[in-house]
Specification:
The protein has eleven helices and four strands; from the N terminus they run ββαααααααββαααα. It has about 280 residues and is mostly helical. The chain has two domains: about 200 residues, Rhomboid-like fold; about 70 residues. It has a two-stranded antiparallel sheet. Strands 3-4 form a two-stranded antiparallel ribbon. Helix 8 packs across helix 9. The radius of gyration is 31 Å and the shape is elongated. It starts with a strand and ends with a helix. The relative contact order is 0.08.
């Protein structure tokens, strides 16, 4: 398979590597786990412990499941199709993004889609397994990154990758409302939705941290301004009362003024101590 890239000087073509580094690791681990669960003959136990069981996550505190469910699959066709699609569309993405960014995106969409699945089926005891949430996220990223690539539906029908992604996203969204099915369409659609947010919002942890620090600083400044304003008002009231004492003496103060002087002095003292 050869891909064509347009550049200003002319055309550049290259043949992608058979297996990029991250794809190689992900495919190897997924097949190794599938062989382990198959040979052991204890798939049901594996799925309950390491699949995504919404109720078990919050009732039994199995917080590892939104990660581990990505490496278990229901049958040979499940793992074969997921790994084929991951290789077919993920290889070029990894070459364009780099290994670190690719893996970060893969696990963010996979874990995120699992958490959304838990949120919408919080009492379910049915295990959800498979890398499909992350794989659908990869499909979304491929369609947005290379919208004019031609892919062949069923190996026959040519279609631009962007329209292909829109089509499968629509199917996943509409199918997510079905309840009597063994396929978690909600997980598929969630992987694409999270992928879209990541790519379009361009979230970076440094940017998020900067915004949090900025909001915190703005809040502290606002609180400091309120405190200084309060101190100024108290000081003005106390100064006015002290000036009256200087003119007419303490006995010339009303009961309300005496109370205000006492409480105001205490409040002002507390504010000074906080400084």
């Amino acid at each position: 398979m050869r891909y064509q890239f347009q550049s200003n000087p002319g055309q550049l073509s290259y043949k992608p590597r058979l297996f990029t580094d991250a794809i190689k690791v992900l495919v190897s681990v997924n097949f190794a786990v599938f062989m382990l669960q198959t040979i052991s003959g204890k798939e049901e136990i594996f799925f309950k412990l390491f699949g995504l069981v919404p109720r078990a996550i919050w009732s039994d505190f199995m917080i590892w499941q939104p990660f581990t469910y990505l490496f278990f699959h229901g049958n040979i066709w499940h793992v074969l199709i997921n790994m084929f699609v991951l290789w077919m569309f993920g290889s070029e993405l990894e070459q364009a993004w780099g290994k670190k960014r690719f893996l970060k995106y893969y696990f963010m969409t996979g874990i995120g889609s699992g958490l959304i699945t838990v949120l919408f089926s919080i009492t379910s005891l049915t295990p959800v397994v498979g890398a499909s949430g992350a794989v659908y996220g990869i499909l979304l990223a491929y369609g947005l990154s290379f919208p004019n690539r031609t892919v062949y539906l069923y190996g026959i029908i040519p279609i631009k990758s962007l329209w292909f992604v829109i089509a499968i996203g629509t199917v996943a969204f509409l199918s997510s409302f079905q309840t009597l099915t063994q396929i978690s369409h909600l997980t598929h659609f969630s992987g694409m939705a999270i992928g879209y947010l990541i790519l379009k919002r361009r979230w970076r942890w440094n940017d998020i941290w900067f915004k949090v620090r900025k909001k915190t600083l703005e809040y502290r400044i606002q609180q400091e301004e309120v405190k200084q304003s309060k101190k100024q008002m108290l000081q003005e009231d106390i100064d006015r009362i002290l000036e009256k004492i200087h003119k007419v003496g303490f006995d010339g103060l009303s009961e309300d003024e005496q109370k205000k002087l006492y409480e105001g002095s205490k409040a002002l003292s507390r504010l000074h101590k906080k400084d």
